[in-house]
Every structure is written in C-alpha cells, then in structure tokens.
Amino acid sequence: QVQLQQWGAGLLKPSETLSLTCGVFGGSFNDFSWSWIRQPPGQGLEWIGEIVHTGSTKYNPSLKSRVTISVDASKNQFSLNLRSVTAADTGVYYCLRGGRWYTLGTYWGQGTLVTVSS
Amino acid sequence: QSVLTQPPSASGTPGQRVTISCSGSNSNIGTNYVHWYQQIPGTAPKLLIYENNQRPSGVPDRFSGSKSGTSASLAISGLRSEDEATYYCAAWDDRLTKWEFGGGTKVTVL
User: Fold this and answer.
1) Do A111 and B2 touch (CB under 8 A)?
2) What does the pLDDT look like over B38-69, one tens digit per residue?
3) Residue A11 and residue A91: Cα distance in Å, rounded?
C-alpha cells in the first residue's frame, strides 16, 4: 500500500517562502509522477505542478514564476517551494501521486493547512 | 472561474440516482481523460473514477462515469447518506498546459 506523508510550516508572513515536503512510502517512486495541489478555504482545487524522479517538472502557468518543485529520489521525497506568498496563497496543500501521464490522485497526502498572515 | 463547468449542487433521496455533469472543451475533455474525485469535508479528495469510466479498487459500483465529446458525467445510483460530499471533475488541458478542475458539485442526501 502506498502512503504519502507531508510536512512543513503552516504559518507564514507575507513575502516569505512556503516549503513543504512529501515522503512516499511503498510502491515504486520512479514509476510515477508526483504532484502538488492546493485548496483555498471553502473553494475548489488548483493544480500547482508535478515532478518525476529525474527532476523533470511541469508547472501551472499562473504560478510558474513563484514555484519550484524538487525531488530527492534517493529518499522517495519531493518538495514544494512557493516564493513571495500572500494571503491569497492561504489554503490546504496536498501532495499526491500522478500527473500529466499518470492518473492524478490515486494516492494523496493528508494535507497541510498553510496560513499566510502578518 | 473554472474551465470545467459543474452544477454547484445536486440532491436526492436515499435510493435515488443522481447525475453530475462536467462541461469542457476540445482542449480538455474533448481530447483527454476525465477523472472524478469525492471530497468529504475536512478530508483529502478521493479518486472515484479515472480515465472516464474506470473505478479504483474499493469504489462501489454505484458510482459510474461516462464521457461524450466535450462533456462528462458522474452518476451515483442507489444514493446513500454517506455519499454526501463535494464531487470534482478534472482533465488535462492541452491549450493551458495544466490540470483543470471543475468548481465542484455538493451532493445532499435529503
């Protein structure tokens, strides 16, 4: 059984950098792509981007200038950095398995509530 | 504003059949698979239907998906109280080069 466990800071000030990491346990890390999705309070889902074990990425064009997704395949982990956050970046962030060429969301992390407030 | 259009709400009594639509365009639903997710408040979304009409292991066969042209549908037959949730459709958009989600449909069991 595949499990995703994510961690990172939940409270940020405007202009800081959001950093989250997702660990993958079970399954074959190198056989899939891995994504981040976020959900503002009371709103819908927004895809942030994805990565594969080689480090190749795809990003949501609307966030591309502020986002970096990286991978440490030796640890079966991938990470999200979102720079210059504002209140509009507040929400629950999820890591999940899948992306453009693999079913999106077969497995999900537990979610991390990130609040941006001065 | 979502590129994929879903009705904001749907409802039915226990045992009824409820259908949720997801309308898109040639660049998303028209050329790519549609996936459906169920989200119960306070929890992560759960994959309900993948590749238009496939059910992951463990998803009851009361849930079914279909696609025709630039639209897709999720049907819930034999509605049960535990089906109260918000349902999202998703598809890759070749023009926007990103995953697009519908705005979500909240299903209420009356």
Assistant:
1) no
2) 999 999 999 999 999 999 999 999 999 999 99
3) 11
> Distance between CA B74 and CA B79 in Å, rounded?
13
Torsion of CA A111, A105, B84, B25, to 10 degrees: 120
Residues B55-59: contacts with CB under 8 Å, at least 24 apart: B56/A106
Answer yes or no: do A60 and B46 touch at CB < 8 A: no
Binary contact (B102, A44; C-beta < 8 A): yes
pLDDT in tens, A59-102: 999 999 999 999 999 999 999 999 999 999 999 999 999 988 88
Whether the CB of A42 is below 8 Å from some CB of chain B: the reply is: no
**Beta-carbon count within 10 A of B99 CB:** 27
Contact A88, A66 (CB under 8 A): no
Dist CA B101 CA B93 (whole Å): 10
B46: Cα within 13 Å, side-chain hemisphere: 17
Is residue A50's pLDDT more than 90? Answer: yes
